[in-house]
Amino acid sequence: MKTPLTAALRLAAYAAITFAAVSIAWFAAKSRIETQERNAKIAQFREISPDIDPALLDHPETITIEGQPAQRYTAADGSSYYQTSTYKGYNGEIKLLIGIAPDHKTLLGVRVLAHKETPGLGDKIEARIHPWILQFAGKTLENTRFAVKKDGGDIDSFTGATITPRAVTNQIGSVLRAAQEP
């Protein structure tokens, strides 16, 4: 006959063994996970600038753009890359990577890092789904009004969605303005 104390001790032993096994697995995989995350991030940077030096990721600078935190990475050639978010998407946060040329005026390109926009509609902001995001490369504040056409700007939105393209376009304009500030 088992007493409650014996059952409790057995349960505690199983919990300790399980915790130890999970901890060992996590520590064994930790460096591999970090390496894969770094390689994925480098791949995202290389979608904008194929010749990017991976060492760029070693020295991020935390800055503020319109009251929101962002990361700035500066390349040896003077180009800069901003990892920023807008919370004005239809379903919340949209994380962006924005590359700006050494002149601090010209967009090298933009990629969406993460979002929760509606599949088949708002997810057209992803380059792998739709070429909409590619239109920003080469644009400057001098040659483009960074607003969707519905708001009097130069950027096309896509059919059925205005909130998502508006959020992305406005954030890109904000980052480009911030990049030109001394």
Could you describe the 3D structure shown?
Its cofactor is FMN. This is Ion-translocating oxidoreductase complex subunit G. Its EC number is 7.-.-.-. It is a single-pass membrane protein. Belongs to the RnfG family. A hairpin with a 2-residue loop joins β1 (61-65) and β2 (68-74). This protein has a domain at 54-180. It has helices spanning 4-48, 163-180; strands spanning 61-65, 68-74, 80-89, 92-100, 107-114. The protein is an alpha+beta fold and 182 residues long. The chain contains 2 helices and 5 strands, in the order αβββββα. The protein has a 5-stranded antiparallel beta sheet, sandwiched between helices.
Key descriptive features of the protein:
single chain, 5 strands, 35% helix, alpha+beta
What's the helix-strand series?
Answer: HEEEEEH
Distance N terminus to C terminus?
Answer: 78 Å
Beta-strand proportion: 15-25%
Question: Which stretches are poorly predicted, pLDDT < 50 over at least 5 residues?
Answer: none
Spatial order of the strands forming the largest sheet: 1-2-3-4-5
Instruction: Tell me the helix content.
Output: 25-40%
Spatial shape: elongated
Using DSSP, what is the number of strands? 5
Radius of gyration: 22 Å
The total of helices stands at: 2
Q: Major sheet, described briefly? A: 5 strands, antiparallel
Structural class: alpha+beta
What's the overall average pLDDT, rounded? 88
